Structure formats: C-alpha cells, structure tokens
Amino acid sequence: MTSPIDILTINTIRTLAADVVRKANSGHPGAPMGCAPMAHILFSRFITANPANPKWPNRDRFVLSNGHACALQYILLHILGYDLTMDDLIQFRQTDSRTPGHPESHITSGIEVSTGPLGQGFANAVGLAMAQVHCAATFNKPGYDLFTNHTYVICGDGCLQEGVSCEAASLAGHLKLGNLIVLYDDNYVTIDGHTNLSFTEDVLKRFEAYGWHTQYLADGDHDLAGIHEAIERAKKVTDKPSIIKIKTTIGVGSKNQGTEKVHGSPLQPDDIVAIKKLYGFDPEKFFHVPDEVYNYGKQFCEKGAKAEAEWNQLLEKYCSEYHDLGAEIKRRFSSKLPDNWENHLPRYNPSDSPVATRKLSENVLNKIADVLPELIGGSADLTGSNLTRWKTAEEFQADSSGLGTYSGRYVRYGVREHAMSAAMNGLASYGGIIPFGGTFLNFISYGLGAVRLSALSSFRVIYVMTHDSIGLGEDGPTHQPIETAASLRALPNLLFLRPADGNEVSGAYLTAIKNHERPSVIALSRQNVPHLEGSSVENTLRGGYILKDVDCAQIILTGTGTELSIAVDAAKLLENEGIKARIVSLPCFDLFDEQSLEYRLSVFPDGIPVLSIEALSTFGWSKYAHASLGMKSFGSSGPYKELYKKYGFTPENTADKAKQVIEFYKVHQVPSLVNRPFKQ
Amino acid sequence: MTSPIDILTINTIRTLAADVVRKANSGHPGAPMGCAPMAHILFSRFITANPANPKWPNRDRFVLSNGHACALQYILLHILGYDLTMDDLIQFRQTDSRTPGHPESHITSGIEVSTGPLGQGFANAVGLAMAQVHCAATFNKPGYDLFTNHTYVICGDGCLQEGVSCEAASLAGHLKLGNLIVLYDDNYVTIDGHTNLSFTEDVLKRFEAYGWHTQYLADGDHDLAGIHEAIERAKKVTDKPSIIKIKTTIGVGSKNQGTEKVHGSPLQPDDIVAIKKLYGFDPEKFFHVPDEVYNYGKQFCEKGAKAEAEWNQLLEKYCSEYHDLGAEIKRRFSSKLPDNWENHLPRYNPSDSPVATRKLSENVLNKIADVLPELIGGSADLTGSNLTRWKTAEEFQADSSGLGTYSGRYVRYGVREHAMSAAMNGLASYGGIIPFGGTFLNFISYGLGAVRLSALSSFRVIYVMTHDSIGLGEDGPTHQPIETAASLRALPNLLFLRPADGNEVSGAYLTAIKNHERPSVIALSRQNVPHLEGSSVENTLRGGYILKDVDCAQIILTGTGTELSIAVDAAKLLENEGIKARIVSLPCFDLFDEQSLEYRLSVFPDGIPVLSIEALSTFGWSKYAHASLGMKSFGSSGPYKELYKKYGFTPENTADKAKQVIEFYKVHQVPSLVNRPFKQ
C-alpha cells in the first residue's frame, strides 16, 4: 500500500520545510514535519485537483487550518506542479512574495482560503462542504455526478480550542456533511508547552457529541497504511462529517522533536544537518527535491488534468441534455450575474409609506432571490428579526432531517455568528455562490475574526446586519452597536453601507452584489424611516451624494441611515429661520472616498461647515464633518423614540447644533482640529 | 421537600413575568416562566447572599446567562429584598429605569455581570469560579473557610451554541472548577423555532468530554424535588464543574407554551388572564405578590444577613490570627491599591538601550507583580510572545494536575481569546482581583464581544495586546491589526493605550491600574523602540502631550507607539532643512479628550497644521490631524523593516509628507475637510 516514493516524498517535505523556515529565519518548521505523512497520503491517494487549473469547480478542496504550518502547503503546491516555483519557496515570508507567513487565497494559486487565525480554516471548510452538497443537490442528475468533491482539512489543537471551530463543528454535525473529512494533527504541543497546560478535554468524544464519525490513529509519524485506511473509512461514512485524530511528533527528526521549541522558530543549522542525514538526504544540499518526487508531482498533474477533461466532457453532455441548468453552472462558476437582474430591485417614491430598512431589505430579497439563485442565505437564529427569509425560500437541511434538502437555500446557522461568518467565506470560496447572513449589527463583533478575512481574501460575502443603532430600543446597550461602524469603516476592502431609505437599500444590495471582490456589511434599522425626496439607487453607488441642495448653503447636514431623515427635518426647521442647509447622504464612506476629488469637493466644498448626525460613535466623522452629533457613551434600554430624544437625535437639537456650528465658524477661520463648536 | 410556598412563589414569578413584559410591551416572557422552578429552588435552597449588602465577598454568585430572561432575575431580586421596587418592575425596559432589557451589573444592585449577548454570562461564571478557588487557596486557613461560595448559572441553548461558552466550558473542565454549577434550561425552542432546525448535538456528552459532571432532569416544570436533588448531587462533586440539563416548557401555562411565539414578545391579555386563573391567581390583579411570598423573601434576607454577620466575625478572628492576610482581604475587597505601589514602576532615560514595548511590559510586570498580588494574568497560549509571565509567577492550576495550585496567579487560557476576555470580566466582577490577559492585538477581534462588556460594565480588565501593527512582520496580514485601534478608540469607557517607549509603558500600566472603572487595552510592539527624550510616565496619564517643542513650529508631527520615534527622526531631517516641527505623543485619545480645551489647544494650537503617523488605519485621526500617514490597506508578510519602508513609515517619507502639508496649508486657508494634502 505504501512504497519508497511515499517515504521519499514525506522526507523531502520534512527536509525542505526545515530549509524553507531556516532561510526565512522565521516560521514554523515543526508542524510541517509532523504533518508530512498525513498530507502526503491525502494528496497522493485522495485529492483530485488540476494544478493547471486550480479553479476547476469539482476539485477536492484542501484547507490547512493550522495556517502557520503553511511551509507544508507551499512545498506541496510546488511539488505537485502548481504555479509556485522553488524561488517562491526560497522567498518564504519575504516582502511581496507568493509565500506569505500564513496562506492567503488571493496571493497564492491553489490556496482555497486564507488561514492562520486559528479555527477559521476549519469553519471555512464547513462552508466549502455546504457548497458542495448544495451544488450536488441542485445540479447533479442521474448519470451526471458533476459535483462530487470532498473537503479535507488538516488542523491542530489550536484550531479545535477556538470557539469558531466549535460552533462550526456543531453546525456540520447537524447538517450531516459527509463530504467533510478533518485530520487532526494531535501533537500534544502548543506555543506555551504541552497541551496538558490548558487542553485536557476528550476531543473525539466531543465530536461524537456533535454527530461526527471519529477515528484515532496512534502513530501518524510512520503508519501510512493506517492513515490511508482511516481516510478510506471516513469517505465511506456519507451521512456524517469525519474527524481522524492522528497522534504525531511535532518536528519529528529534530533533536527537539515533540517539544514547543520546534513550533515557531527555525531549527538550528546543526539540527538540520542531522535531520537530513537521518532521512538519507545530503546535508550539503539545500532546497532539494529528488527527481522521483517531481515525477510523482507530474503524475498528480496528469491525473488531475485527465479528471478535469472528463468532467468537462460530462458537463458538455449535461448541457445538451439539461440546457438551462448547464448554462447556470457555467454562468455561476464564471461569476457572471444574470442579465438585467438589477431591474428587479424595488424603487420607491417619497409618497410610499415609511418602513424599517430591515423590512426594505426583505423586500429586496423577495424580489431578487428567485432571479439570483446563487444567493444562499440565512440568519444566526434571528430570522424573524433580521427578515432574511424570502417568501419562496426553502430550507437548506439534510434530507434525513425531514426539514428540507441540500438544494434549499435558506440556512439555519443557529446562534453561531462566528461560524456563520467563517462558513460564508467557505461558501464564497467554493464558487457559484453569493452567501449572505444576518444577525444584529452589534453581534458582528462576535464574528469579526471571520469578517476581516472576508475582506482580506476579497470574498463577496454579504452581512445583513439589522437593529443597527440605539434605535433597537428596549433590548438595551448590550445589544446596541456604538463602535461597530467605526470598526468596519476602518477595515480595508470592506464596504460598510448604512442606507437611509428604500432606494438606498436597493442601492446597497446593488453595490454588494456588483462588488465581486469585497464583502459588504449592510446596516439596517429596526425602526421605520420615510422615503426621502432625492434618494437614489444609483447615487448610493457613489457612497455619498447631495440629497437636497439649496443656493448659498450656510451649512451642510450629513448623515446615514435612520438619521438622514432627521437631518432633512432639521433643514426644514432651519429654513423656517431663514438658514439654508444642504443635505448630504453618506451611505458608504469607502465608496465616497473612491470618487474623484472634484466630485467630493462638489459635495463638501470649501467654506461651508459640515455637521454630521449618526446614532453611532462619532469616531471617524472628522474626516468629513466640522462637528458631529453622535453617541459618546453606550446607549440604554427604552423605547427608541425616547432614546433618540435622550441622546439628542431630533430635528430640533440638530437644528440647534447647526446654528452653533454656523456661529462658531463665523469667528474661527482656520480652526485647530481640536477646537470644535461643541464636544463630540 | 417542597411545600405550598414553593408552588406559590413559582407561580408568582410566572404571572408577574407575564405582567412585567406585557406592561413594557417588549421583552421575553417565555424563559422566565419556564425557568421559574429551577430559579426558585436555587435561591430558596442553595444561594446564600445578603440583599442588604449585595457585595458581601463570600455570597454565592448567580449568573443569568440567558439575559433576555431578565424579568425572572428582576422579579427574584424584588421578592428577595434587594434594592428593586415594584415600581422598578413596572418600569421594565423603560428609559433610565433600573430594569433594563438585559441585565447590567453597573445599573442594578444584585446583578453580578451584564448578560444578554449569548454565552457571555456562562464564560463570566467560569471567571467567577476561578476567582473563588483562587481566593480560597490564597486566604482560607484551617478553621477559616472564608471563601466557600458557589457560582450558579442558568443558561439556555443559545448560550451553549456560542463559541465563547464552548471555550469557557473546556477551560472550566481543565481547571476542575467544582464550585461551578450550571442549570441548562432545555426548552427546545430558539427564536427561529424548534432547536432541531439547527442544534441537534448531544450537549451532555459534549460536556462530559470537557470533563464536567452531567445530569439530566426530565420534568423541570414540576419536579422540584428532582431539581433540588440534582443540585445537591452537583455540589458534592468537588473536582468537576457540573451541568444539569433540565427539560422545561417555555412559557408554561400560556396557550402558546412550548413554541417560539412565547419567546420574545409579550403574551396577549386574554392569555395572561387564563394563565393567572390556571395558577390560582386573580386575573384582575396586576403586579401581584402574595404576602407569603414577600415573607419568604424576608427569610432569605435574614438568612443572608446572619451568614454575613457570622462571616464578618470569622474574618475579624482571622485578622487577629493572620494579621497580614486579613488586611490584604480587606484592602483588596475594598478596591484599594497598596501604598506607593507605583514607585515600583520602572523609569527610563534616552541613553537606555532600545527595546520592544512588549518587553517593557514584561519589565513592568516583573516589578509590580509581587507588589500587587491582586494581579492575576495569563495569555491565550502566546506566553513567550506576549511576555506576560513574570519571573516569580506560579501556575494557576488544579492541585491534582501536578502543574500548579489555585493560589497560583499565572493562567494558561489556552487558544481561547474570547473565553479569556469573558472570564476576565468574571474575575474582575468577583472583587479583589485585577485580571490581565494577553494575545496579539489582532486577535482581540476574537474576543470583542467580551471586551465591549468589560467597558459597558466598568470592569477594570487589562488587555495586554502585543504585536500591535505591521511591525509584527513575517506572520503577515492575517495577524497584522489595521482596523483594531479605530474599533477600540470608538468604544466608550475603554482606554486604548499605545505607549511609545519605556516611560509610556509604565504610564500605560499606571493608567490601567488606577482606572478602577474602565478596562484598558495596552498595545505593545514586537520590534524595538528607543527611549525618547521628553517621554514621561505622568504625561501618559494626560493621553497626549508635547514630547519636543520648538519656537514657531511650522508643523506638528504626532503619533503613537513605534511610530513616535520615526516622527522624532523626521523632525531632525526637517530641522536640517530649517523646518521647525513640534512632536506630540498621543498614547491615548480618550484621556487626551478628557483634558481641558485650554490644555488641548496648548498641544494643538490654531494655525499649525498637524500630520499624524501611525502604522494602523488612518480612520479617526482626522480628529486631530490635517493629514495622516497610516495604513490604507491590509499589510503583508515580510521583515518589518521592509514593511515599514513599503508602507512609507520612515523618517524620510514622514519629512516629505510634512513638507507637503506645510505647502498645502500655505494656499488653503479654510479647507474643506475632504480636500487634503494627500490621499489618506
């Protein structure tokens, strides 16, 4: 079952990992060495993929959840013929290299998801597995097993300690994801030392409790046949995800093997010499891959190319028999949107009844969900509050649950915000899917570790976040976001949208769906808002625009979401006093900042002071506003109208503040930036 | 074992809960009704506390982790004689009431921790239990069982789905916290519907895997004796935390009992009439508590007052026998710091060798840990990186682990950032303890749900966050914080400190420890920094100050942390060209904003443009700076010196940007806030 080439490949990975990390003078040699046997068996026996086309839809997915062990993954990609050269390996962890310190899916071909923050990869894999069963249930037909891939994960104990993986494991068990197979590298070592310092639970028993199939292998350093057989058995279990706990020795072969010393620092040169000798390698050779190993890599490529060619043939045949479905596969996996889908977005007039923006979001979903079958969404157990479930939605559930099928598109994530966010990254990574998920805006803080990876990885994930301010009311400050908008506005490559009314909600979805390479957070209200004169779907795409203009404005009132209509009402009060105010809507800072300076100056010209109003922290508004009306403390529990009064979010107070701003700037020509009309 | 008063009290809670939520027209009636039996048995048979002194150190702690059920807790506090009147109950969820929509420990007497965000209370309870065993091991002596309290939790399935509780449960099992008893209200209903939609794991088996003692009770609606006996059994298990899964009917007695309809909305008036009739109450009476129930409450008070009086006597006797320890208990539980502790803070001169601020933090801990025995800290498995372990530290572990004892003060939190943060809230809540915990600054995002509750609850928790920028280097953008400072600066009642050198690190700890009623995040570098001329421990307390001044400054360079020395070097380059620059250090925005306008204007006067430099998102700097040098994207993997060049954090680029700012403001007198010298 195993042969000399297996041993040779494994030892090549081990010695190369030692060289790669040593050359970088930074990194983690121990886990790549310890995981080499399981990784090799996985790739040589089980994984079908085509290095010449790393995006082939039906490839098996591999996730290295313990991303710090990425020397392993880079070495495998190199040996297996992916677009990663020996020079790239030599450039490990160097500036602008294709081999960064942790795997980044947008940087390195063949990497599915960005990992390293522990537990994320595991939870991404649950999303990847969900995507596969969904595509299979949606597209496979008798004789056409187009979507059959597995998702394989290697993870360490760190990943399994993290809450995000616990949530994801429970979800995967519930969903009976038989296509998910996790190899748990149990090396008993963490950064702090032996796992007995902090991690003494019975992991496999825990996974049994989640409804997983579990196996244990006592010698992951040498028992290649055992690894092979365990994965074989796991593949045969089709109604449960599988975890195989594999006992290994971290840094196996090093004089410090089995200790935390080999975890996060390069091995010493003399140690590397000894390791190479131990494994029958020439200690004078560095970055050495034997020809036999490269030959094995070529065979992997050939097998993968053949598999893809057969798959493409099958798809063509499928297209002739199932014309529409075949076209859908091609469209969705090339990230094309259906023609004219945006015509389905609802548009509103000021005479339409006031309505909560979360309800307007539901309206959008009701209009576009059938037009965009790649939209797959749900909520972290707040469906009735987030209003994320569209009328025709069907449940995404295992057939045997009796509650739905995998072809359903409404996901019950449970009370698991972090796993939802991370699983959405996996769903987006799979291809052909636009995932969205809902919770209260405040609880995006539970999933922020995953949200920032949506942004870093350029995944189009849509976060539908309702109850977006103190307007949430009675639930109180534990549930009222304050710092949240600042946090998301400061995050690169993510669009934080806070639409003010119906047209802007449609504009927010248009933005989120059109932006293929970045996630969006759409912040939505619990309370009703009127539809505003001058609001626009298209202008929302510019991030900011003049909602209402006047000649010779003395002040600009700007805001977002539920506070924009307060600004409009304040302008009316000011008008009664003969004071002229322009209104600027700013639904998305990032999109506005991307506009030309000329456009931005046309919105906020020299010489007119700006007052912002937003029922969230004022932090960050100084970018545009000379003075800001916002939250300087946590909110409180009470009916939202009372809270809006308590914290000054009324037309009257806004008008009053506007007059202060105008007065102030009559006498302050070049203000210090700390000297403001009022405390903010 | 049970008597008519038990039934009467339980039904009083149920009917009162219906009234309270109905009157508020908002809230959650179902869980209070379903949990009434277990809560009543807990308080009437097991909990010893003194409503007249809710802060008595040895009281049993009760945490309602499913905080949305807080009508239950408020009703109990009222009946049991805490400072909560019937008027307070009538004001449930109203603005400025003492009965907010979710429990807030700083608002309502008798509430230990702020709960509602699911899973937090559970994890707080682990911290409370850690605190008790620590105080017991530190202070108890033969014949003096001063610290003997238990921590009791009621939680729902939502809490147990959250990752934070999973992490905390694993930690509690590892630490063998026999003083922790959790009652799991298993009512099969979530907001979305039946738990079978998303939560089908075997919870008790999972807890067994964590090393917990588990029990199941089939009828939590009626089997009062069963509840009693199960808690008795749990108390007898002293080497494991306990969980008792209690099957209940949500909203029991309502026509919609057992469904999600009674979860989050008031019951209908006719339903409430029927419920009152069912439970033998007069349907015409609202907010009714029978005299017998108030009498039972009085007995609870008397029992608690007696217990505290006995405890106080015991403490006085202890003080005469163990004078120093007794004085320590009194000092620590009155939140007094030892005299002159701050004299131990290290101070530095510019001639001292450059060193990383994380190392300077270790220096502080080495100097103060023995002087401040209430400091109890650890790391989420990054001890060697965070440098959180002081020289004389002993391990906080169960005796039976062979690794330490509960009197140890160094906590191995494992790879569990969220549980660490939430447990620290529990440790702070217990009293007599100042908790600190370390991870990389980037991974505070994993624990943000708990961090914001440290702030809301006014808990002095110290977050020691290292590797605080792209200066982390090779680990790459998955580990490099960008948005993090903005997020924390926007969070009310939390001090985000980013010290620049040795004196400022000492100043940061001085700030964090002196601020009794707010948490601090101390951001620390991986890379070395020089000790700066003009830096000051005391000035750090002002949040911002002039580090180096010049006559007739043409520009102000301001920054924090590792970038401040770059500003200093840039000023030297500018000086060579005859350009005069003032340097302002801004280690803490919030503290600076609290200074007088006069002081702030003395630092940032009118007429001098300000350029900020910080290797984090520029978002928020517009508050002080006319232009900002910072991160506009994620970072990348590489040696930090190269990254600093790549992103422009060099004296040369800073000087160049400073000249652009000066030039720009020669011709722009009253700038629009969007028109800046360069893109930021």
Automatic annotation (TrEMBL), chains A, B:
Q: Which residues bind thiamine diphosphate?
A: H68, G116, P117, L118, G158, N187, H263, F443
Can you quote the record's cofactor note? Binds 1 thiamine pyrophosphate per subunit. During the reaction, the substrate forms a covalent intermediate with the cofactor.
- Annotated ranges, domain Transketolase-like pyrimidine-binding: 355-531
In terms of SMART domains, this protein maps to: Transket_pyr (SM00861)
- Listed binding positions for Mg(2+) are D157, N187, V189
GO biological process annotations for this chain's record?
pentose-phosphate shunt
Subunit-structure text = Homodimer.
Name of the protein: Transketolase
